[in-house]
Amino acid sequence: MNTLRDLKQLLIERSVRRGEFILASGKSSSFYIDARMTTMSPEGLAIIGPLSLDLMERSGWKPDSVGGLTLGADPVSFSISRASVDRPPLVRAFTVRKEPKSHGTGNLIEGPFKTGDSVVIIEDVVTTGKSAIQAIDAVLKAGAHILGVLAIVNRNEGGVEAIRQHGFETVSLVSITELLG
Questions:
Q1: What topology is assigned to 48-180 in CATH?
Q2: Average of pLDDT values for 80-108?
């Protein structure tokens, strides 16, 4: 179990929900993709890391680190970092908080992120692009170079275009049409 087909099957079985939902954007939808049900599972973690490394390689991206807005990006970033141990070069994972810590170091970015890193921003599901853009802004402000955005699922609702207007391309492992088919 380690192919794109396996990932799609896991997402269909565990993450696609049908009904009436209000999304984070405030829009209503007849389906919801709870990617965490897949990205936080042992099987999902094992599949997502290598597939993401493949996609970044095909995109010509050679990141020093990967990360995005907590919580959706976290398991994806960690699985990519872990997979890089088996397929060097090593890729470090970080997480971007929604707000800086109010205690301790007051960090907005946690983990082994370094100023000057070449970074791929991670998203579990891209809908409006707002979360990715928030992470992009934080990482740019911290002095990194962004290669692009990698998403597990593209909902095809304008998020990729919004990220492109912000100056960055997005690649995704799966499109929503492949899950709802």
A1: Rossmann fold (3.40.50)
A2: 88
